[in-house]
Structure to design on (256 residues):
C-alpha cells in the first residue's frame, strides 16, 4: 500500500484530501457555533423589542456604562421619549409596502426635551400619494409630544443597494450622518446629536405616517451552511475512497 501511495496519481490526491477534509469539517462546526450565536441574538432582540419601553436617557446611560455589547446592545431596545418634531426637515426613505404599494418611510429629526439633543425618528410608512406633508396635516404634530419606539443603529450601505440621492431627498439606506447633513445644511447642525434612529410604534394622528414599520427579523441560514460544509466533506471523502480503491486494484487487475 505504501508503494502505491507513492504513485503520483494517488499521492497528490491524498495530500489534497488530507488538507481539505479537516477544513470542510471545521467550517461545518464553525457554522454550528454561528447558529447558536444567531439564535441567542434573535432571542435577545425579541426580548428587547417586546419589553415595556424604558426612558431613552436610561437606555443611553446603560450603554455608556459599558453594558455588554455597548451601543450594539441598544439595537431594537424599546424606549420612550419626550420632545418635538422638526416637521420642516422630513427625509424620505424608499420603502414600498407589500400590501399598500409604493411609498416611503418618513424620517424626522426629533429634539429631546430633557437634553435638547437631536436624533432621528422613523415615523413610519406613507403611500407615495401622501408623501407631501401638506396632504397629511393631522400627522404634523406641533409642540412637545411623547414617542415610543425601537432604537435602530445607523445602517450600512449594502451591495446592490442604490446610492442615496440627498439632493432629491430620496434615501435607500439609513445613512445617519448623510441625513443629518441634509436636514441641517449651511452650518445649522445641532450642537448635541445622538447618532441613533428610533422607529416609532404607532400611527400618527390622522393615520399617517403609519408607525410600527420595524421588521424584527434576522437572516439565519447557518444550519443550512453547516449542512453544506458537512455534505461537501462527505462527498469529498466518498469520491476519494472510490478513486483510491480503484487505484489500489489497478495493478492487480492490469497484471502490472
Amino acid at each position: 500500500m505504501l508503494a502505491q501511495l507513492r504513485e503520483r496519481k494517488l499521492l497528490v490526491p491524498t495530500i489534497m484530501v488530507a488538507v481539505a477534509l479537516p477544513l470542510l469539517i471545521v467550517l461545518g462546526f464553525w457554522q454550528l457555533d454561528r447558529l447558536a450565536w444567531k439564535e441567542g441574538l434573535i432571542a435577545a432582540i425579541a426580548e428587547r423589542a417586546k419589553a415595556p419601553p424604558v426612558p431613552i436617557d436610561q437606555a443611553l446611560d446603560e450603554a455608556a456604562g459599558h453594558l455588554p455589547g455597548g451601543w450594539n446592545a441598544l439595537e431594537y431596545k424599546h424606549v420612550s421619549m419626550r420632545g418635538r418634531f422638526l416637521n420642516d426637515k422630513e427625509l424620505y426613505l424608499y420603502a414600498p409596502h407589500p400590501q399598500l404599494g409604493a411609498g416611503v418611510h418618513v424620517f424626522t429629526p426629533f429634539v429631546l426635551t430633557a437634553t435638547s439633543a437631536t436624533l432621528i425618528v422613523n415615523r413610519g410608512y406613507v403611500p407615495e400619494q401622501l408623501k407631501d406633508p401638506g396632504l397629511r396635516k393631522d400627522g404634523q404634530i406641533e409642540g412637545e409630544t411623547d414617542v415610543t419606539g425601537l432604537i435602530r443603529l445607523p445602517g450600512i450601505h449594502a451591495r446592490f443597494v442604490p446610492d442615496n440621492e440627498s439632493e432629491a431627498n430620496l434615501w435607500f439606506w439609513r445613512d445617519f450622518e448623510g441625513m443629518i447633513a441634509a436636514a441641517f445644511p449651511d452650518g445649522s447642525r445641532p450642537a448635541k446629536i445622538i447618532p441613533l434612529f428610533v422607529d416609532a410604534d404607532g400611527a400618527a394622528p390622522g393615520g399617517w405616517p403609519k408607525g410600527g414599520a420595524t421588521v424584527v427579523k434576522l437572516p439565519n441560514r447557518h444550519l443550512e451552511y453547516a449542512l453544506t460544509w458537512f455534505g461537501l466533506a462527505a462527498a469529498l471523502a466518498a469520491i476519494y475512497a472510490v478513486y483510491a480503491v480503484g487505484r489500489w486494484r489497478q495493478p492487480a487487475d492490469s497484471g502490472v
The two ends are 14 Å apart (CA to CA). The chain has a mean pLDDT of 89.
